[in-house]
Write a structure and sequence with these properties.
Layout lengths: L2 H12 L1 E4 L6 H12 L3 E7 L2 H10 L8 E4 L7 H12 L5 H7 L3 H10 L5 E4 L5 H11 L10 E7 L11 E4 L9 H18 L5 E6 L13 H13 L6 E7 L1 H5 L1 H7 L11 E3 L3 H13 L4 E8 L5 E3 L6 H11 L3
Parallel strand pairs: 1-2, 1-4, 2-3, 4-11, 6-9, 7-8, 7-9
Antiparallel strand pairs: 5-6, 5-10
Helix pairs in contact: 1-13, 2-13, 6-7, 8-9
């Protein structure tokens, strides 16, 4: 599977509209041109100086003729959504004027533009740091219904001719939550399946709830949250035949068929996992970087999930192609 082509083709079918708040960054402008020229999305760039954005683009030879560059103006946003936001933030100690000034900042304006129903997704973080993007998205967009924990996932793309993994897999949560408890792990697994279905329609989701133990091979109180979370996730997907869940599983039991058969006989996930839920951020962050650096996997992400509307963060080291692909992913339905 060429994951890049796969994602782009799925996104093209949506014919979505995306806002990119960092309109003065050359990488973002290049990605905007690519998204537009390739028919992946209609792109909106917000700014308080349209002439300056055009000047930067022209100086770099970037064609923004198909991109909509808009002036930041709260009057074009949904008045009722602004009132809700003002009410929520003033209850936290801000003045009304401070809140309205906040909405004139490109990141917050873009989130409210999304909240107002004027686009389908927002992608930022090439310039803003993760804390800024998370804060703005949680304050303006909020968490999805029934989900209390915003998290992230990586699409892990195996190198060609990998001996075990032949198709992309998902690692979660490797970037946001330091120590999620059982209900948090349940939220993480639940929203990851939603994204897996968007990315790989028709493919069986096999969720491994990871630990240092497989099916009671160790006895330690820190295993209890993984065991409890496994039961919660199983209960959530009862009757959904496209999802299998098992845990607690060690990584080798989850990924290697022969080991899975020996350590967890009869498991529908052991040896077949394609969604890996890590017990905490230590394990997740270390795990994806080992796979990336020693296993030569391409790690695409982190991609935010669990929000009420499609928003994602970028690494500040993101390439033009990263911005292009993450934007496409955010449009998937």
């Amino acid at each position: 599977m060429n994951i890049r082509e796969h994602i782009v083709e799925l996104a093209k079918k949506v014919k979505g509209r995306i806002i990119l708040p960092e309109s003065f960054d050359l990488r973002v402008l290049n990605a905007a041109q690519m998204l537009t020229e390739n028919g992946v999305a209609y792109v909106v760039l917000p700014t308080d100086n349209i002439k300056e954005v055009k000047k930067i683009a022209d100086g770099a030879g970037i064609d923004l003729s198909g991109v909509e560059i808009i002036e930041i103006d709260n009057s074009i946003l949904d008045k009722s959504k602004i009132e809700e936001f003002v009410d929520a933030r003033t209850k936290k100690g801000m003045t009304e004027q401070e809140v309205l000034s906040l909405l004139k900042k490109p990141l917050y304006f873009s989130m409210m533009y999304l909240k107002s129903g004027k686009c389908d997704a927002c992608v930022g973080g090439a310039v803003y740091d993760t804390a800024d993007v998370l804060r703005a998205s949680i304050h303006v967009v909020g968490a999805a219904k029934g989900i209390k924990l915003v998290s992230s996932y990586f699409i892990m793309i195996p190198p060609e001719n990998h001996s075990i993994i032949k198709e992309p897999i998902i690692f979660t949560d490797c970037a946001v939550n330091p120590d999620p408890q059982a209900l948090g792990l349940k939220d993480i697994a639940t929203v990851t399946v939603d994204n897996f279905r968007k990315l790989f329609p028709g493919r069986q989701a096999n969720i491994a709830m990871l630990s240092f133990s497989t099916k009671g091979s160790a006895d330690n109180k820190i295993l209890s949250k993984v065991i409890e979370a496994t039961d919660l996730v199983k209960a959530n997907f009862i009757g959904q035949n496209d999802v299998n869940v098992d845990g607690e599983l060690q990584f080798d039991a989850a990924i290697v068929a022969s080991i899975g058969k020996r350590k967890a006989p009869g498991s529908s996930v052991a040896g077949n996992a394609n969604i890996f839920v890590f017990p905490d951020l230590n394990a997740g962050n270390i795990g994806y970087k080992i796979a990336e650096r020693l296993g030569e996997f391409q790690a695409l992400g982190p991609i935010l999930q669990g929000l009420a509307l499609p928003v994602s963060d970028l690494s500040r080291g993101a390439s033009v192609d990263d911005i292009y692909l993450i934007s496409a992913i955010m449009l998937l339905r």
